[in-house]
């Protein structure tokens, strides 16, 4: 082989890359330490872009098509290499192919709970995971910040590299959006679309990619926050708490049987009705009055003794409501009661007036 033939064989005349892996993001074309010939052909297929890098600097960028490498169409490279008047000799340059198609179904998630300030619950911790679709839109930025000089940068490497970055951007976007924790946990699809305009500027500006779809599949909160959400939902269903307590108490008294019989306790827990009346008068201004006849007893089971005065616990047990509901009715002034010693007592007449008022 002649020297001319040997030199010709050492020059690169055609540069092309066929991607059959479906998961390669960037690929550094192997030059085997050969030089690129003046007038060489660069072939870029659809869903590809080619970035030239010379002397550590990003040079010309090529889209799909067949390109002849000459001074006219590589102006940046010509400037970097000092070709003021064109070039004739071969040159060295790194050639990176980037896959610009859409990569779908990439998973993201928080390895640890993220802190979030919420208007309803204060500071809460959230765990979240989901999927996202992306494409490369800024090859120089992507090569510099993500792929680096990797010969063959694949999707699995990208997932490991970007998972924490996606979570970081998601956390910042969630904080800027000011979405309450209740909405985060209940409106996944809408929230994902709402966060895209906040997430994308950061992703394209920092990493050279565009997120085309961002999906939240699950957001979980600590157990205590879940309980608060459940209580808030229950309150929304109940509506007016006082009306609800009255209904529950009236319903329990009307059923009689076990519900009313449960109000019976040992005799030492009861106080005479006359004393209860005096307490009620004292609450109304300490005005003395003649003893009045006791009102007819509330319906109870025949076997259950009738009590003139009940404790909040007895009323709650008899009517299948919580003690907190009874105390709330007392605090609101709907149900009259008074302390005897260290215990709160409710006169039956006051209870009847509350239920039938």
Description of the structure:
- The structure is a single chain.
- By secondary structure, this protein is of the alpha+beta class.
- The chain is 41% helix and 27% strand.
- The protein has 13 helices and 15 strands.
- It has helices at residues 3-10, 75-81, 139-147, 155-177, 181-186, 188-207, 223-238, 241-255, 257-261, 273-283, 312-319, 323-331, 348-356; strands at residues 11-15, 24-28, 35-44, 48-54, 57-62, 65-68, 94-99, 103-109, 114-118, 122-136, 152-154, 209-220, 309-310, 338-340, 343-347.
- The strands form 4 sheets. Strands 5-4-7-2-11 form a 5-stranded antiparallel sheet, sandwiched between helices.
- The chain starts with a helix and ends with a helix.
- Residues 1-7, 257-280, 285-295 and 298-307 have low confidence and may be disordered.
Short précis:
By secondary structure, the chain is of the alpha+beta class. The protein has helices at residues 3-10, 75-81, 139-147, 155-177, 181-186, 188-207, 223-238, 241-255, 257-261, 273-283, 312-319, 323-331, 348-356; strands at residues 11-15, 24-28, 35-44, 48-54, 57-62, 65-68, 94-99, 103-109, 114-118, 122-136, 152-154, 209-220, 309-310, 338-340, 343-347. The protein contains 13 helices and 15 strands.
């Amino acid at each position: 082989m002649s020297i001319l033939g040997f030199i010709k064989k050492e020059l690169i005349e055609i540069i092309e890359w066929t991607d059959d892996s479906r998961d390669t993001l960037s690929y550094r074309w192997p030059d085997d330490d050969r030089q690129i010939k003046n007038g060489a052909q660069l072939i870029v297929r659809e869903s590809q872009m080619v970035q030239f890098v010379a002397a550590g600097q990003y040079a010309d960028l090529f889209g799909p098509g067949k390109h002849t490498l000459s001074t006219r169409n590589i102006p940046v490279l010509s400037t970097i290499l000092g070709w003021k008047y064109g070039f004739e000799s071969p040159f060295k340059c790194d050639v990176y192919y980037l896959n610009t198609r859409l990569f779908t179904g990439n998973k993201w998630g928080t390895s640890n709970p993220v802190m979030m300030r919420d208007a309803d619950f204060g500071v809460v911790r959230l765990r979240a995971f989901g999927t996202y679709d992306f494409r490369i839109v800024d090859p120089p930025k992507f090569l510099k910040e993500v792929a680096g000089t990797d010969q063959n940068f694949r999707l699995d490497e990208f997932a490991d590299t970007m998972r924490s970055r996606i979570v970081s951007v998601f956390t910042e976007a969630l904080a800027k959006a000011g979405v309450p924790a209740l909405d985060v946990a209940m409106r996944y699809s809408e929230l994902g679309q709402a966060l895209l305009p906040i997430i994308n500027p950061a992703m394209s500006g920092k990493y050279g990619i565009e997120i085309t779809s961002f999906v939240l599949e699950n957001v979980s909160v600590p157990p205590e926050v879940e309980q608060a959400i459940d209580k808030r939902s229950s309150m929304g269903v109940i509506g007016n708490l006082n009306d609800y307590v009255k209904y529950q108490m009236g319903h329990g008294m009307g059923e009689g049987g076990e519900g009313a019989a449960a109000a019976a306790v040992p005799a030492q827990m009861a106080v005479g009705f006359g004393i209860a009346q005096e307490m009620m008068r004292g609450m109304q201004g300490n005005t003395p009055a003649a003893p009045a006849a006791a009102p007819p007893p509330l319906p109870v089971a025949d076997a259950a003794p009738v009590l003139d005065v009940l404790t909040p616990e007895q009323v709650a047990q008899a009517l299948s409501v919580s003690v907190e509901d009874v105390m709330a009715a007392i605090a609101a002034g709907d149900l009259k009661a008074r302390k005897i010693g260290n215990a709160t007592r409710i006169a039956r007449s006051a209870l009847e007036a509350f239920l039938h008022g």
